Description:
CATH class of the largest domain: Mainly Beta
CATH superfamily of the largest domain: Outer membrane protein transport protein (OMPP1/FadL/TodX)
CATH architecture of the largest domain: Beta Barrel
Structural class: mainly beta
Strand order of the largest sheet: 1-2-3-4-5-6-7-8-9-10-11-12-13-14
Largest sheet: 14 strands, antiparallel, barrel
Amino acid sequence: MSKPFGFFICQILEISLFCPKFGEMPKSIAVYFQKLIINWKTLIFCGIVFLLKTNLILASGEPFPIGAKSWGIGNATVALADRNSVFNNPAGLGFLKENFVSTSYHARHNIAGLQTLSLSSNYNTKFINIGLSIERFGDKLYNEQKLGLAIGKSTNMISLGLKVSYFQAAIENFTSKNTLLTEFGVMTKLSSKVMIGFHAYNLTGAKLFASQHIPTTLRLGISFTPTKQILLVAEAEKNIELPTLVKVGIEYQIVKNFYFRTGLSSKLNHAHFGFGFQSKQFIFDYALSSHSALGFSNHLSISYQIEKSSTK
Length: 312
């Protein structure tokens, strides 16, 4: 039986902490590390860790997109003001007219310990809109938690958003580190059908472990609603350590309150599909994303619209 994903994360992090350069790894540790690779999925993951230079990434793939709707349209969400804005771009909170409570579950590649759970809510006031988010990734051996507070303020055409999160990563019986993350976002309505969005993640360059830092990511995108039934989205994402990633997606309302979604990115080994439907004040979203080497991931979200509105 294969060991939980968290077990391998613990071993990888322990090695990276003591040996930032794998070329300097003591022979005894190298032999021990080789014994941990016991199935093909683990081998692939370890290869990715080497290629991306372990000190540049976190196990969860921060910043990890939240929400099945987001995954259904290829995570091109920077210019969308919806129930996932507290995760994807806090500026979207300023344009929200309804209050939501949402929960999401993301199971990646059918690997034990590689799941993300989230809970979020937003509340609109007369002066400012507020969002609260909670995320948890991993298992008992290795896990990451994030608790965030976001605010959004809009005029008729422009919305600004700011988010601060407490982020913690823990390795069982070894170490636990925490830091503060900051996010900033802007959304502008060019017309009733076109929106432009910008989002900056971790501008302060916060770190956890000495040999690992959380990436700084910049996103710029557009959303276009040519009709009430069609939503088109596109964005460019730049991780300062990686090449620019381009993402596009489409949502089509097949019948009233039932939506089909799909998306693609410049990483051609990724594909996204999903659907969503609304029943009174409940909204259900599901998405399936695929990776040519690691397989399929499932994404499920359930939202409750506290204040019913005629718009989605």
